[in-house]
Amino acid sequence: MTRTAFIFPGQGSQRVGMGRDLAERYPELAGSVFRAADELLGFELSRLCWEGPADELRRTDITQPAIFVTSMAAYRVWAAHAPRPVAVAGHSLGEYAALVAAGVLDWTVALGLVRRRGELMARVNETTPGAMAAVMGLAAESVEALCSDLSGAVVDVGPGGDVGPGGDGGPGGDGGDGVDVVEVANYNDDEQTVVSGTVGGVEALSRAVRKKADPAVKVVRLDVGAPFHCSLMRPVEEQFSADLDAAAFADPSVPVVANVTAAPVWTGAAARAALQAQLAGSVRWRQSMRTLVDLGVETFVELGPGRVLSGLARRSHPEVPCHPTSDVRRMEKAIGELGAGEFVGAAVRP
């Protein structure tokens, strides 16, 4: 039997319509997950996933539970038709779905944590507006060096705390003390590194990259609701700790490769610590994929909306097949190729 790893996507994979065809094709599997989530959350998350509007679906406090629930719906369909994984991992938010698949968290507990996480992260942008950008074609070490040079730069703060004419961030663009922040948030693959920080810090890094005048190097501003995975999230880390402490974490049934260390966690306590650390820590996805391959994984299955992780996997490890499952056609194609079998891992039971 093929040694398979499940990988679960994070924020940015959302799209209007996600999960709808799976819910309609498999009403007692995927559909029941959406119905239960609507009841647990107290609003129609399913409607937002399937009908939008897109602007509301992009809100951090909505996007995070929406992607998590869509991933759980896909996971439940897979779990009913195909073999269990030998390891799991999730990109940022996706780590919660990975922990459910490994039997560490009950899915309803994970949904509550994800909702709280999204709410807390969204509040950061209200007090400290931030930004994120993807740097493509530049080695991660070079991006790290630029971040080190630019972080902590004092900007020109005008009356009322806004960034004045000499600053980079526009109104409210600094870290609160007239100091810019820009840090590596995601090590996605050898050619793509994501940075996060204050608006001024990210814009300063973007200018520094463009000054290199290398047509192979690009910087793309990301459409996100907050500066994830950088030190601006430290307040969230502190506030969220009580929620994590109150949740029950079991030991994983299969290795879960943690974002912050790119190493497997083997206990519930380690999984809890990894979730807290990833809020303000870098997502070491490139290294995590290497760890999965080193664990003997022979194929990846991406469970959730979009195909972002499948694309990253194909670039970093073209020798390892990757199967997206974002719609019925792709799901059933992947199940057909990997073969049916009794699933003996953790199950989603709404």
Main attributes of the structure:
alpha/beta; Malonyl-Coenzyme A Acyl Carrier Protein, domain 2; Alpha-Beta Plaits; 2 domains; 6-stranded mixed beta sheet; 14 helices; 10 strands; disordered C terminus
Description:
The protein is α/β, with parallel strands linked by helices. It has helices at residues 20-25, 27-41, 45-51, 54-57, 60-81, 94-101, 107-127, 140-150, 199-210, 234-246, 268-278, 285-294, 308-316, 328-338; strands at residues 4-8, 87-90, 130-136, 182-189, 192-198, 218-221, 256-257, 264-265, 299-302, 322-324. It has two domains: 4-124 and 232-338, Malonyl-Coenzyme A Acyl Carrier Protein, domain 2; 129-225, Malonyl-CoA ACP transacylase, ACP-binding (Alpha-Beta Plaits). A six-stranded mixed β-sheet has the order 8-7-2-1-9-10, with helices on both faces. A four-stranded antiparallel β-sheet has the order 4-5-3-6. A hairpin with a 2-residue loop joins β4 and β5 (192-198). The longest helix is centred in the N-terminal third of the chain and has 22 residues, at 60-81. Residues 154-176 and 341-350 have low confidence and may be disordered.
CATH class of the largest domain: Alpha Beta
Q: From the helix content, strand content and strand pairing, which structural class follows?
A: alpha/beta
Annotated CATH topology of the largest domain = Malonyl-Coenzyme A Acyl Carrier Protein, domain 2
- Termini Cα gap: 29 Å
Low-confidence parts, pLDDT < 50 over ≥5 residues?
154-176, 341-350
Reported CATH architecture of the largest domain = 3-Layer(aba) Sandwich
DSSP summary, beta strand count = 10
Please indicate the percent range of residues in DSSP E strands (runs of 2 or more).
5-15%
Order of helices and strands: EHHHHHEHHEHEEHEHEEHHEHEH
Could you tell me the mean pLDDT? 90
- CATH H level, superfamily name of the largest domain: Malonyl-Coenzyme A Acyl Carrier Protein, domain 2
Integer tally of domains = 2
Fraction of helical residues: 40-55%
Describe the biggest sheet?
Answer: 6 strands, mixed
Helix run count:
14
Task: Tell me the strand order in the biggest sheet.
Answer: 8-7-2-1-9-10
Radius of gyration: 20 Å
Shape: globular
